Amino acid sequence: MSYKICRIGIIGAGRIGRLHAEHIKYHLPQFQLLAIADPFLDKVWAEKLAIPQLAQNAETIIANPDLDAVIIASPSELHLEQLTSASEAGKAIFCEKPIGFDEETIQLALKSIKKNNTLLQLGFNRRYDPSFAHLQKRVAAGEIGSPHIVKITSRDPACPTKEYCATSGGMFMDMTIHDFDMARFLVQSEVVELFATGSILINPDFEQFNDIDTAIIQLRFANGALGVIDNSRQAVYGYDQRVEVFGNKGMLAAANQLQHSVSHYSDTTTMQSNPQYFFTERYHLAYLSELRAFYEAWATNQPSPVSGEDGLKALQIAKAAKESLTTKLPVRLQ
Hints:
Elements: E1 6-11, H1 15-27, E2 31-37, H2 43-48, E3 53-55, H3 58-62, E4 69-72, H4 79-88, E5 92-95, H5 103-115, E6 120-122, H6 130-140, E7 147-155, H7 162-167, H8 171-174, H9 176-187, E8 191-199, E9 214-221, E10 226-232, E11 240-247, E12 250-254, E13 264-265, E14 270-271, H10 279-282, H11 284-300, H12 308-327, E15 331-332
Parallel strand pairs: 1-2, 1-4, 2-3, 4-5, 5-6, 7-10
Antiparallel strand pairs: 7-11, 8-9, 8-15, 9-10, 11-12, 13-14
Helix pairs in contact: 4-5, 5-12, 9-12
């Protein structure tokens, strides 16, 4: 089978950048990984992957005329500058979330993306989880009628580092933003009002970042549906990821993925394994599928399946959640 090869580079070789690099190298032959840039690049790791161009700065990658596309997996505060430069250089762009922190600057960047007719896909990988994607298709097909209630549980197994928290933008921006996107994806309606409450119940270090580690967010959608998201930075039993959509004709639910499917039944108890421990395990297939979708959009000149506007909408919801947390009042979204 022959197909057009997408020559790609990666900006950022932290945890997520390395994940994408290894997936491309070992699982996605439709891509050719030609370059990677990071100020603290692990050259031993990069040389094992036989990446031809190793650089310390993003500009080197963006200026490479041999690249068709770039993956932006750098720290969040650098995303807008880098994707704007990549767009001006004629590259297709896959950008990890969030797209940025400032709405006005995001709008300017999206204008540049539109002017240059750039393919930009945001890294909301959970849309591509097989269970969540299957559930969404059945909701969209009307299998449970009109959605009335969506419930999303998203709990990490362990708190992030102080270094990560210092630049992440806070819990709603670095963690719950996935759930805000998932809520829009499942209900296919915009959030018009929310109320967020949160606490520091796990690690007092979050206080120095004006952040929280535990939260519940109530959502109201334009179509009248309601939503509830609950988050925790530390679920001691593993990576807790569940979704439920209830409608007037029934309910659809996606349970946790477990470490294995063996259950133990005895005369006193029934036992099963814990959920998979971290996102790299839980969303392995989703990470592969989102890059396949990016490739298909690039190869067939189709619109982005997860656009910059999707990134902006999720950011607006995250900022409204932070406002609600601060004011202790519901917040309306335009």
